[in-house]
Q: What sequence folds into this?
């Protein structure tokens, strides 16, 4: 049983662009928010080397540096940041109860900004080269791979969308898929299969990514799933497009989620099925998944919270 639970007006779970923006707005509204940072302080941008598509940074900025600026801005207005990972919640009634081991916090309003995680291959070389030729976001990083030969891993709509987008920059894009047919929609398949800068390697998986010693991708080792034959394929970058998983398992059975796990919200607001609980960023967004859209919904959530608390007096 947790002792001496701390009571807050507003708690924000997650410290990515959505959580930090919500904190900035909530703090400026004198709500004295607390941000509980989670297992990856700063969110997915801390895995990105260069951010060039966020407004206000004409020369680009390193992902971790950008998140440090957002955090400093939130702290400047009175936000408190706590390093903890919430492992269970009770949203049955306010004040909502949040637990991290034997620590407990209570709050009158909660903003869920826990984000999402790209599903990855799980290779040590993938981890070592993330941000150095390995990416999980073509929209974020495609610009840096002009005239390169690239590999996209996956067979669904996301993979084909990423591959088609990358043809704007790359010399050629090869899609590697573990099966002999695609899972993507027929229209997307037709477009990709007839694209002059796209080719496919079927029934194959990546066993290793080459270039760790130079911190720059130079190729991959492929294994055929039928024959187990291994071949080396040269490339200048690898884009993993096997889906995203929202970080929302914590709220199962309490917040309404779709079949994949993204939290549902009411109309154009950030309101969830539980009054006083709001959602922002990639925990709800399975379409855009960009830092700037996450920040926008963080602003919306803070405004929704302020109105909610005002209505309750």
A:
């Amino acid at each position: 049983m947790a002792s001496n639970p701390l009571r807050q007006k507003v708690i924000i779970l997650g410290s990515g662009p959505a959580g930090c923006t919500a904190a900035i707005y909530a703090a400026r509204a004198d709500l004295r928010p607390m941000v509980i940072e989670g297992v990856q302080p700063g969110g997915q941008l801390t895995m990105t080397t260069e951010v060039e598509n966020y407004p206000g940074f004409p020369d680009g900025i390193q992902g971790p540096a950008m998140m440090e600026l957002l955090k400093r801005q939130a702290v400047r207005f009175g936000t408190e940041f706590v390093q903890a990972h919430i492992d269970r919640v009770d949203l049955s009634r306010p004040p909502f109860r949040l637990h991290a081991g034997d620590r407990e916090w209570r709050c009158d309003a909660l903003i869920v900004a826990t984000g999402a995680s790209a599903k990855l291959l799980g290779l040590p070389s993938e981890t070592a080269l993330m941000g150095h030729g390995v990416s999980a976001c073509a929209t974020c990083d495609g610009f840096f791979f002009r005239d390169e030969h690239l590999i996209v891993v996956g067979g669904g709509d996301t993979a084909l969308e990423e591959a088609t987008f990358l043809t704007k920059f790359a010399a050629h894009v090869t899609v590697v898929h573990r099966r002999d047919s695609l899972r993507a929609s027929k229209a997307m398949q037709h477009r990709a299969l007839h694209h002059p800068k796209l080719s496919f390697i079927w029934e194959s998986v990546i066993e290793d990514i080459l270039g760790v010693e130079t911190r720059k991708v130079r190729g991959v080792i492929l294994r055929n799933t039928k024959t187990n034959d291994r071949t080396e394929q040269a490339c200048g970058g690898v884009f993993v497009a096997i889906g995203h998983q929202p970080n929302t398992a914590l709220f199962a059975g309490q917040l309404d989620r779709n079949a994949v796990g993204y939290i549902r919200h009411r109309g154009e607001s950030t309101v969830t099925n539980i009054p006083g609980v709001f959602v922002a960023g990639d925990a709800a967004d399975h379409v855009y998944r960009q830092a700037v859209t996450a920040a926008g919904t963080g602003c919306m959530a803070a405004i929704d919270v302020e109105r909610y608390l005002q209505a309750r007096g």
